[in-house]
Amino acid sequence: MSLRNKILILTIGLISFLGLILVAFVNTTLKERLLAELKERGAFLAQTLAEISVHDVLTENNLKLQLALNDYQSANKEIEYIFIMNAEREIIVHTFKEGFPTDLKNANQVKFTQEYNIQPIIMRKVEIYDIAVPLLKGHVGFLRIGFSAAIMNQHVDNINRLILGIIVAVLILGSSLAVVFAALLTKPLDELTRVTEELCKGNLKSRAHIMANDESGQLGNALNMMIDYLHKTTVSLDYVDSIINIMGNALIVIDPIGRIEKINRDTVLLINMEQMWNQ
């Protein structure tokens, strides 16, 4: 794998990793904080409504109670329902338009010693936090308010979509910058590779073009100095062959394992004369 591809993959991996950490933070820590705020705000609203409803429950002013509950629900979009029970846990008023669901009545039991009790429930596939508040410690009745987590979850989803959009944008921008950076980084290395390949072919005239005064530039200078030194101290093969051929005696060059590498002209003439003599 080339250095350019490694830089690109590392950039994409790093951005994706940071994005996943941010998404995990939103779906855990931030959601927990939003949920805690929802419960705190819900408890405050439920206790406030309970205090102003005590008198109407005692005087059995159910019409005023119904209007108050309807106004309270209309003013708070997170409220899914509100209902009040008397001390015998009989429903006095509620905000359900299609009739009161009987299984909800005992879904949240609050003790007389408690200021309120919060119970998570699922209603029509919606996550609800049911808050029960006793009226005068339960001697008058009980108030129940259901706060939907749908709006909170919608906020979290919107944040997740925003983060994902930012991650995609950063990935595109980061990948583009990584490609440019990798090109700038590998261009001097490509130049050094080209000169090295030419040197392996025996071309001592090739030189590295120095593009910067950094480590790659220093390496290019060192390579050029080495080529200059080789150019001064190294003789060409043609020059060696010419010396071998003009030697007055027969010369045979063999490699370390005994194979013939070169022979000069006198050796060829000597072999030809020996063959003619034998004939």
Topology of this protein?
Layout (H helix, E strand, L loop, with lengths): L2 H56 L3 H14 L3 E8 L4 E4 L22 E7 L2 E10 L5 E8 L1 H51 L14 H19 L3 H9 L6 E3 L5 E4 L1 H14 L1
Antiparallel strand pairs: 1-2, 1-5, 3-4, 4-5, 6-7
Helix pairs in contact: 1-2, 1-3, 3-4
What features would you highlight for this structure?
279 residues; alpha+beta; five-stranded antiparallel sheet; two-stranded antiparallel ribbon; 7 strands; 58% helix; rod-shaped
Oligomer: single chain
Structural class of the secondary elements?
alpha+beta
Q: Note the run of SSEs as H and E.
A: HHEEEEEHHHEEH
Query: Major β-sheet, in short?
Result: 5 strands, antiparallel
Give the N-terminus to C-terminus distance in angstroms. 64 Å
Q: Based on DSSP secondary structure assignment, what is the total number of beta strands?
A: 7
Number of helices: 6
Mean pLDDT figure: 82
Output the strand order for the largest sheet. 2-1-5-4-3
Helix content: 55-70%
Tell me the β content.
Answer: 15-25%
Poorly predicted residue ranges: none
**What overall form do the CA principal axes indicate?**
rod-shaped
Radius of gyration: 45 Å
